[in-house]
Fold this sequence. Notes:
By secondary structure, the protein is an all-beta fold. The protein has one domain. The chain has no helices and 5 strands. Strand 4 and strand 5 (40-47) form a beta hairpin.
Amino acid sequence: MTWESSDEAVGTISSKGVFTPKKAGKTTITATANDGSGETATIELTVVEK
């Protein structure tokens, strides 16, 4: 899988799929299969301050 965060100022995602928040906001995480199928999945995450 290849992972991507649409807004790395809000948070980053590692090559193993571990999300690290940086600041409050919204970002979309996209996972793409590396098997040549072109399959993707997305989820919107909201980071809030405590």
